[in-house]
């Protein structure tokens, strides 16, 4: 059947951790321009700890997998991104629940719930120059693809492309949330670090065996 296993979702998470590690210095450079130069080190520290937690006790359900990652991010990463990415993963986990498998529509619903968690916590909307601007288009693209009968793997590729476009679209935006908002007009012309990390999350999904 088309359902994905916890093991496949875990490969997605591990691939994301790998991409974050590879891009740590780049993410930190982006944050140096409009923040406090710690986004790459924050996310890398958090995802390394998440992978260590997965190594220590392999999760048996989709819910346990994402909840573990979310709790680890919340407890090891401070600042904005710890609670925001932590909530994203925690909401994905609570939506997928106590099940070893997930249907494509459940994966899409979980990602949408994750976006809702980010909004509940950070109150960002479209055009605020945050991770929202990459995540919301990705959620939209995945929902549309599945509704059109596209399979999950191809739907995730469309979500990846939407996230990348959303990331690129943050460059001309004026930041209205987070540290970058303190810069006002001087935030214009710089790509948002958190949106860049979201694009890596969707990139990782296309590199996992969905
Ligand atoms: P900090 O700003 O505390 O140093 P990070 O540098 O790790 O945290 O993360 C910064 C990123 O967090 C930003 O690039 C942005 O995408 C995201 N962000 C900040 N505030 C918000 C918010 N209120 N809602 C959504 N995302 C936010
Ligand atoms: Mg920062
Ligand atoms: Mg910081």
UniProtKB/TrEMBL annotation:
<feature type="domain" description="DhaL">
    <location>
        <begin position="7"/>
        <end position="207"/>
    </location>
</feature>
<dbReference type="InterPro" id="IPR036117">
    <property type="entry name" value="DhaL_dom_sf"/>
</dbReference>
<keyword id="KW-0418">Kinase</keyword>
<dbReference type="Pfam" id="PF02734">
    <property type="entry name" value="Dak2"/>
</dbReference>
<dbReference type="GO" id="GO:0004371">
    <property type="term" value="F:glycerone kinase activity"/>
</dbReference>
<dbReference type="InterPro" id="IPR012737">
    <property type="entry name" value="DhaK_L_YcgS"/>
</dbReference>
<protein>
    <submittedName>
        <fullName>Dihydroxyacetone kinase subunit L</fullName>
    </submittedName>
</protein>
<dbReference type="GO" id="GO:0005829">
    <property type="term" value="C:cytosol"/>
</dbReference>
<dbReference type="InterPro" id="IPR004007">
    <property type="entry name" value="DhaL_dom"/>
</dbReference>
<keyword id="KW-0808">Transferase</keyword>
<dbReference type="GO" id="GO:0019563">
    <property type="term" value="P:glycerol catabolic process"/>
</dbReference>
<dbReference type="InterPro" id="IPR050861">
    <property type="entry name" value="Dihydroxyacetone_Kinase"/>
</dbReference>
